[in-house]
Every structure is written in structure tokens, then in C-alpha cells.
């Protein structure tokens, strides 16, 4: 509980009061939102409030590239050159932006889901690219989950991205309750997906687990739609955990595309490694979280099963949350023969 503010004297008192009101308003918003995903280590769950997690409320692309109410996904990773079989030579094909290069790759996808191009490479640094400036190379990776990266000690002038066709880019979160298959979104969150590639190559995920499980309750229906006149939580209709694996140095991931959270969205809390799977359409969390994958609809039943496991009440910075009595270990594995 905050202390009562002391009155001040002088001609600047009205200005000080106005600044104080503004500060308090911003602080209230911060306090209300940030505790929703505050992580406490399993050994220290308690009813005591603790420090807030950092929380950046800035949109990835405020007011730009909006399509059908969602931010457009055509992102790549800077300073990265992907190799692979050439589909279209960049020396004969130049565009103005990496987004145009990405769209050119997507345009090779047919109605049946097949894509001639699954990766693109764009030279956008005018100074370093020289005569190659604007080149857009469309390529085909033999293994999209293990893209062929050009290993160079120098900073690359290239920006590269991946496009996953139907049925490709699916990995499994293996738990004792079953496999939760998720479709990775490299064109929306390329850096996040690159980290998932690291977990796949690590061949283990020691330390990765689910620790918080909140039902839909009477607030959202089976399709994730909010029920009129009901509250926005608690419970908050989510399954939360961490993807920080032992032996792998995790670096905070900058915010990427932040669409509205829908049922099945897999998103980071801040810059990771804590993440959550949403069981509901959380339009009230308007574009605050990087979504890097989505759960296949048929596997949401497993997520629903996990949130029904025994939990205990915890208070995180004044917010009631449901913590699993026994944490659920998980592994990230390649998925085989999965249709979307």
C-alpha cells in the first residue's frame, strides 16, 4: 500500500499535483497488467507479493501493415544469409524492401499448399550491398527446420526469412499428458522461431516445464469466446511455463509481431523464456505479446486436460493465480506425419 503524499507549498504545487496524478495512473496500469504472467520459481510459491516482471506495452508495428485486423507477417532476420537451392536469382530480380521479397516467396505457394520457395534473401544495406542492393533471392531449403545458414565471422549485409507451407514447421511439446503440436510462425516471429530451432538441436529441454494452469471457468466458452457479462478473470484461461533449457544460453528476444491473442496462440511473456498457451480469445490483451506459434486445434484437448490438474492458489503482486501442484516437464521434438 502506498503512503499518503505530503502536501507541498509554492506556486508550482498545481504542476506537481498534475505530474503525480499522471504517474499514479501509469503505475496502476502497470501493476494491473504485469502480474498476470509474473513467474515464481516452483519452490517459492507463496501468498507474498514480489517484484513485477518487466512489461513493454509497445506494439511491434503500431498502425502499420494491418491486414484483417492483424499485423501483417512478412518478417526476416537481419545480418543473416540463408543458402539453399535457388528458385529465382536475385541478380535478375530486385525489389525495394524485405517485405516485398518475402511476399514474392509467398506468391509461389499454390492452392494445394505446395510452395516452390520456402526461404528468401534480400540485400538491403545500400552501402554494403553496393551493386547487389535490392537483390531478392528466392530459395528452397532441403530441411526447413534446419535451414542452411552461411557461417561468416563478418556482419552480413543480407536479411533472410522462412516460409512454411501447409504441414511444415510443426514441432511437438511432449508432456506426460500427450504431445501438443504447434505450428511455428517464422514470417511473424523469426527470432523466436530461431530459438525453437536451437531447442530442437539440443535434443533435450531440461528445465522446460508448465507450472501455471488456469481454466476457462465461466468466462469463456469451448471455442474461446468471452461470455457476455462475465469477468476477464481470474481464472485467465491459459497454460504458462518456461522454455529455458539447461545448457542453452537464452538471450531476451526483442518484441516481434504481436497479433491479438486467440485460442491456441503460443506467445512469450515479455521477451521470454517464459511463455503461455491461451485457451481463450483475449482481445483485451490487445497486441501486447509476441505470438510465435499456434496449437493445432485437435491438440487443444490436451491443453484443456492439463489445466484440469490439481492446482493451488498463489498471489502474484495482488493477482490470484492457479499454480500446478506438480509441474509438468516438457520436451521440444520434431513432429512427423502431422497434417494441418
From TrEMBL:
<keyword id="KW-0812">Transmembrane</keyword>
<dbReference type="InterPro" id="IPR002130">
    <property type="entry name" value="Cyclophilin-type_PPIase_dom"/>
</dbReference>
<keyword id="KW-0472">Membrane</keyword>
<feature type="transmembrane region" description="Helical">
    <location>
        <begin position="12"/>
        <end position="33"/>
    </location>
</feature>
<dbReference type="InterPro" id="IPR003609">
    <property type="entry name" value="Pan_app"/>
</dbReference>
<feature type="domain" description="PPIase cyclophilin-type">
    <location>
        <begin position="171"/>
        <end position="313"/>
    </location>
</feature>
<dbReference type="InterPro" id="IPR029000">
    <property type="entry name" value="Cyclophilin-like_dom_sf"/>
</dbReference>
<feature type="domain" description="Apple">
    <location>
        <begin position="81"/>
        <end position="139"/>
    </location>
</feature>
<dbReference type="GO" id="GO:0003755">
    <property type="term" value="F:peptidyl-prolyl cis-trans isomerase activity"/>
</dbReference>
<dbReference type="Pfam" id="PF14295">
    <property type="entry name" value="PAN_4"/>
</dbReference>
<protein>
    <recommendedName>
        <fullName>Peptidylprolyl isomerase</fullName>
    </recommendedName>
</protein>
<keyword id="KW-1133">Transmembrane helix</keyword>
<dbReference type="Pfam" id="PF00160">
    <property type="entry name" value="Pro_isomerase"/>
</dbReference>
